[in-house]
Amino acid sequence: MAKFMDVHDGFFGVTQEQLDAAHDADLKIEAEEGVHFERAWLDRESGKAFCLSTAPSKEAVMRIHERAGHPTSEVYEVTAEV
Question: pLDDT of 46-66, one tens digit each?
């Protein structure tokens, strides 16, 4: 299974509770596409959220985020780690 990092824009003013709720929305349906969202981070200043996942494909990650209500087309396969 490949690892992916994705980036969401427009998360200005998002609270910790809202970030948790967005992550939970992904977790509720992730298995339907064989995806697992491991972590999510938020940069309130830039309004960006970042998610780390394992998945069969970039498209599977995109479909789950779309269905959970926070679509993104900015998904990158992470091929090296230290």
Answer: 999 999 999 999 999 999 999
Average pLDDT over residues 43-47: 94
What are the start-end ranges of the E strands in 1-82? 2-8, 36-43, 48-55, 74-78
CB 77 within 8 A of CB 58: yes
Tokens for 20, please give them.
């948790």
- Closest by alpha carbon to 61, among 40, 30, 24, 28? 30
Instruction: Classify residue 4 by burial, with Cβ atoms within 10 Å: 0-12, 13-18, 19+.
Output: buried
